[in-house]
Amino acid sequence: MKIKLWIACALGLSLPVWAGESVGAEALPVIPAPMTCSVDSGYFYFTPSTTIGVECESQLQMVSTFVDRLGRTAGFLPAIEVGAPEPDVRLTTVPSMPPEAYRLEVSAGRMTIKASGDAGFFYALQTLRQLLPPAIEGVEPVARNLCRVPAMTIDDAPRFGYRGLMIDVSRYFMPKKDLLQIIEASSMLKINKLHLHLVDDNGWRIEIKKYPRLTQVGAWRVKRDELFPNRRNQERGEEATEGGYYTQDDIREIVRYAAERQIEVIPEIEMPAHTNSSLAAYPQLACPVEDRFIGVLPGIGGKNSEIVYCAGNDSVFSFLEDVIDEIVELFPSKYIHLGGDEASKVNWARCPLCQARMKAEHIDHIEELQSYFMTRMCDYVRSKGKEVMGWDELTNSTLPEGAIIYGWQGLGKAALKAAEQGHRFVMTPARVLYLIRYQGPQWFEPFTYFGNNTLKDVYQYEPVQQDWKPAYESLLMGVQASMWTEFCNSPADVEYLLFPRLLALADVAWTQKGTKDWPGFLARLDRVLPHLEALGVTCARSMYNIDHRVTPEKKRLRVDLSCIRPDVEIRYTCDGTEPVATSPLYEKPFTVDASTCVRAATFAQGVQMGKTLTLDMQWNLATGKREIANNGSAGVLTNGVRGSLRHTDSEWVGWYDQDATFVIDLGKKTPVSEVTLGCITNSGMAVHKPAVIRLSVSNDKKNYRPVGEIRYSREEIFENRMAIEDARFDNLGVKARYLKFEVVNPGLCPAGDVREGQKVWMYFDEVMVQ
Q1: 274 and which of 195, 270, 311, 634 could share a cystine (Cβ 3.0–4.6 Å)?
Q2: Rounded Cα–Cα distance for residues 238 and 223 (Å)
Q3: Residue-wise over 639-658: b if at least 16 C-beta within 10 A, else e?
Q4: Which band of pLDDT confidence, cut at 50, 70 and 90, is reported for residue 25?
Q5: Domain coordinates of the chain in residue numbers?
Q6: Is 337 a catalytic residue?
């Protein structure tokens, strides 16, 4: 069904036949868009008599894979011959071409592929693959007359040499067969780097022969049914059953499979933090001042995430060097990523070994102790002929020589501190390219962290900013999408978050600056996604879902609806019925002045494309009224719409580590018997109810008198849960125009809490007055 829906959408955007016309890359239904292309009349047809001429064994291998895929569904196998004199399709090496560039020349009777090496030939074949019917990816038959490619000439080359995808296999262990499928899908998009996050607090995922406990102990965590941030740590003696790891033979297979698809696998061995998995196996590598039980963390870990390798213990470096020795043998990549992020210095500050190290090495600041740690390990990696990569926290102290920095925090600007010192860098900004974030309107999405990184956000990302110094651009290796897996429990969960956003990243990484065309990208996307779904890849349809904004406006509610796809219609109803293709067309914002259930969905050619948005606006005396808040609230406290369990869904108003004050202006003196305030708790994200809520009333906005107070105990506030809970003041019996709420923040999360020691967010949704 999913494939039919994608094709149904694509039919309205089908590829025209351009005759002798130069067309922009955005017009060709290929992702990433080629650099230039011109299309002539006619088609080249693959038939049982088609012959393909290759020059060498490596070309033979990649062409055989292409032909096998075609043969499974078309029922014939074109002949492949090394050194064929007059083939219909010829691969020709042109040494002067850039390493990953290719030229594809297609006429009605001949096809020539030119490149300087295997990468260029492979990418040309991926372009051809996308131009053929999606059915070639599966097992269903495809008609021979559809095995055709338009006559055209393409000249293509990537913008960036580094076009990366990071997959976190620590927090969710991705089975090998599913990882191989993601590699296959990524290779079709000309992604050429797979950064494997093999090590974290939540699991050690690679077999190291010298240290078997790394996988006997470090690869397994206790089973917890809560969402990742709410999971409590393992207790001593509790059995760990969740996890897994890759054997060294598995790694060799993954690396070989990726290399055949022109993807370099870069291993990450995290240090000195995010290492509870290895320290659970070998606790003697932690600082000797650490007396807590060390287990593999099932979630964030609270205070246990402070447990890191001891920087003063030489055994730590011997251990890590031994690990690197085996990693070097398994991964032919010229890079090894050593992490270096989010390292707590709490234990280092009180550890006698670490303090002795600082004294011996004349280190005055504890951040420089991390520089010592990372520099020592970087030197060892470099002695093995490898280059070192690390996260942008490495810029907090002296950078190791030659380190390549991944800019991730915020918009990744910390990487520019490295560039200023002449270091190369990769951009993977969390605010745009962390695919763990919501990819569409949050009401429809699985739980995750933070805000939104939509398909459009990813596509519109431009890594080179106008305020950069010219030298920075020359040091930028490329871009990477980073897939953290805290909230994933199956391969389908990972794929859902990856696709289709990885297609947008592929375009950002490959196509030239200044060529973005959002409608054109969507047209291409609709033709390429069926290829992925035919492979069995789970693809999200979040781009069809509707964003909403409901705001008070002159004692009414203004309803704004939008979708990131400009090529769909929004149809809606105001009587609670399901929208259909003939429902009223949303063309501009509208207002309501009474309890109303608005339902809306996107449609294309009469087919519903996204999920139905439901806005059940329940009217009360505060609905549509003005609110005055000390944090610039945008009216969501009185817009009649209750928020979801996702506190970042734009229907909640938040205060961080501070008390809150807000006033609701009812417009005139009004009898008030009951006042309700919506509160939310998400313990894993340190979102809690307040300690105290005080309600007072006034008729002149100057003189307030208290009418109620609600207090919550510490147990009620910090119970580990996720819930929406209303605070209700009843039997008030007052007449007032202004309602003033004064809310007291409960302070730091207490000892034993999943967020122990962290500052608290308070979020409120709707003020309801009867």
Answers
A1: 270
A2: 10
A3: bbbbbbebbbbbbbbebeee
A4: very low
A5: 2-30+36-156, 165-513, 545-617, 626-769
A6: no
C-alpha to C-alpha distance for 585 and 603, rounded to whole angstroms? 10
- Is the CATH number of domain 165-513 3.30.420.40? no
Paired strand residues for 549: 560
CA distance 565 to 518: 9
Q: Which residue has the tokens 């008198």?
A: 705
Spell out the residues 6+ positions from residue 245 whose beta carbon is closer than 8 angstroms to its own. 173, 203, 204, 205, 206, 207, 215, 219
Tokens 């370099």, located at residue: 264
- The single residue listed with the structure tokens 């400009």 is 566
Among 88, 118, 156, 200, the active-site one is: 200
pTM above 0.70, yes or no: yes
Provide the H-helix boundaries in 439-561.
455-460, 470-475, 491-498, 501-510, 518-534
Interatomic CA distance for residues 91 and 60, integer angstroms: 10
| Amino acid occupying residue 622 | A
Q: Determine the Cα–Cα distance for residues 35 and 105; give it in Å rounded to an integer.
A: 14
Contacts of 754 (CB under 8 A, 6+ apart): 229, 230, 231, 232, 299, 300, 302, 683, 684, 720
38-527-175-246 Cα dihedral, nearest 10 degrees: 10
- Report the alpha-carbon distance of residue 121 to residue 639 in Å, rounded: 57
Four-way CATH pick for 2-30+36-156: 3.40.190.10, 3.30.390.50, 3.20.20.140, 3.30.379.10: 3.30.379.10
Q: Residue 330 is inside which H or E element, if any?
A: helix 314-330
Distance CA 675, CA 694 (A): 11
Catalytic residue check, 342: yes
CATH annotation of 545-617: 2.60.40
**What type of residue sits at position 465?**
Q
Q: Which one from 195, 197, 274, 337 is the annotated catalytic residue?
A: 274
Which of 314, 325, 342, 473 is an active site residue? 342
Mark whether 274 is an active-site residue. Answer: yes
If you search the block for the tokens 């730590």, which residue do you land on?
316
Q: Which of 413, 521, 405, 430 is nearest to 464 (CA)?
A: 413
* Domain 2-30+36-156 shares a fold with domain 626-769: no
Distance CA 135, CA 535 (A): 9
Q: How many residues does the chain have?
A: 770
CATH of the domain spanning 626-769 = 2.60.120.1190
Is pLDDT above 70 for 12? no
584 within 8 A of 573, measured Cβ to Cβ: yes
Encode pLDDT of 96-109 as tens digits. 999 999 999 999 99
Among 670, 695, 673, residue whose Cα is nearest residue 764: 695
Where do runs of H (alpha helix) occur along 490-643?
A: 491-498, 501-510, 518-534
Mean pLDDT lowest among 345-359, 628-642, 749-763 = 628-642
180-197 pLDDT tens trace: 999 999 999 999 999 999
